[in-house]
Amino acid sequence: MISTRTAASLTSMTWDAVIIGAGPAGSAIAAQLKRSLKRVLLVDRRTLPFHKLCGCCLSPQATTELDTLGVDLSSGGRPPDQLTRCTFRSSGIALQLNLSQMAVISRERLDAQLIEHAMNCDVDFQGSTTIKKVEWDQNTKLRLLHAELLPSHRGDPVTIRSHAVVDASGLPSTPRAKAAQRFFAPRIGLGAVLRDDQFPLERGHLKMLIAPGGYCGLVRLENNCIDIAAALDVSSMHGRPPWQGVDAIFKHNSCDPPVGLPRATFIGKPALTRRSTLYDQRCYRVGDAAGYVEPLTGEGIGWALRGARELAAAFEQVDPKQPDATQQIGRRYSRGYWAALQRDFRRCRLLTLAVRNRHLWNLTMKASRHAPALIHRIFPQATLHTDSHEDQDASPRQKVEEL
Ligand SMILES: Cc1cc2nc3c(=O)[nH]c(=O)nc-3n(C[C@H](O)[C@H](O)[C@H](O)COP(=O)(O)OP(=O)(O)OC[C@H]3O[C@@H](n4cnc5c(N)ncnc54)[C@H](O)[C@@H]3O)c2cc1C
Question: Which residues does 63 contact at the CB level (< 8 Å), separation at least 6?
Fold first, then answer.
């Protein structure tokens, strides 16, 4: 499932659509575009398996979208673990929630299965290929993608021609996206996967540790490794190494981190809360490339898949030969996208503001105990666990699992 094409075969034809990035948004839109377009190319700068910064939780929306797409995560006889429990912990207060219709799956496995699905739908997949620049050629009315193939694939820079381009390249580090947090600087992402069999975290349990400078989520993956995914204020890093930023969140909550944290390989992401224009003359944008709100509620994969469905629907409704097809598809896509996701973005953004204020957050957690309906409004997939209790003492490592 690695790169299948030589540089010459990539450039010898004009594609109907090229998708940049084989994450959930890219693979999903590629598979769906294949229903109405003939030649669809999906490219990614990496070579499988991808390891990504992610909390690895599948929201009910993500599961529904995967079902609609026809992706069976149980294939191979190993369904993802169900996520049944979540503990929020902040300044000595613990809130336990029951979760329903949520699952955990490593990103290596999820992304690989989505690429495989796209390839089964006859999408051409090309790994190890970085798109450096996209241009609109007024003369030929084509999009030109300037690409670089990894040296291992013996490729010089190439130019790929396509009628349409979809940017599904994830969170941008370029200035094309605006940080969309007006009141606070957006947080950055940091994460690692590490092995600690003794760490008290059972499968199906999500732990969220909240601290003044950020928060981090922990789950155990199918290979028994622990996935750590954190969102942190840049200012809280003070030039220290990534592990110390994450360690500070554990310390604030009087928890020991998994052993090996200082030696773990961390992946970072730029400012998390972002928004870009959904389309312009050069390309349409889906998934995180279109916009993202901090990962507190673990819904990004579902949003990415839903956005891809809306774009595919817009493509199916417009004849691509019409002179203003880009505008027509773009407008339909924008309408569908905002109708489907605006409420979720707003709810999530409010929460990310609340979590930055310790008193407000603690008040929310306390109030939730007495008004379980509040929990449901914040996390539609959660209900209050009846044994939820206040945790006053600084809990040692062996007690963490009791929370
Ligand atoms: C700390 C953290 C925790 C999170 N936890 C969760 C969670 O628990 N649940 C959840 O649902 N979501 C979570 N998310 C969000 C989720 O990871 C994203 O929303 C989701 O991955 C978006 O998918 P995507 O396809 O848009 O982008 P991505 O998955 O980022 O895929 C983009 C792809 O594009 C490729 N690419 C980039 N640039 C180029 C280029 N120039 N040329 C070719 N290829 C390129 C990359 O290699 C990558 O494979 C979390 C995010 C963070 C930061």
Answer: 101, 102, 103, 302
Residue nearest to atom 12 of ligand 1 (CA): 300
As for ligand 1, residues whose beta carbon falls within 6 Å of it are 20-26, 43-46, 50, 52-57, 59, 62, 130-131, 168-170, 189, 191, 229-231, 269, 272, 287-289, 292, 295, 298-302, 304
Beta strand 81-90 with 40-43 is: unpaired
For 64, the token pair is 């529904």
Q: Is the dihedral of CA 138, 143, 149, 153 positive or negative?
A: negative
Structure tokens at 310: 């809306």
Burial class (CB in 10 A: 0-12, 13-18, 19+), 60: middle
Query: What percent of the chain has a predicted confidence (pLDDT) above 90?
Result: 62
pTM: 0.92
> What is the C-alpha separation between 402 and 259, in angstroms, rounded?
19
Residue 294 and residue 103: Cα distance in Å, rounded?
19
Amino acid at 265: T
Name, in order, each residue with C-beta under 8 angstroms of 160's C-beta and a sequence gap of 6 or more: 10, 11, 15, 18, 41, 144, 145, 147
The arithmetic mean of pLDDT across residues 65-72, rounded, is: 96
Neighbours of 214 (CB within 10 A): 26
Residues 6+ apart with CB under 8 A from 371: none
pLDDT of residue 149: 87
- In the chain the domains, ranked by start, together with CATH numbers, are 7-53+108-176+274-350 (3.50.50.60), 77-105+181-272+360-402 (3.30.9)
Extract the tokens encoding 101: 């219709």
Per-residue pLDDT, 271? 80
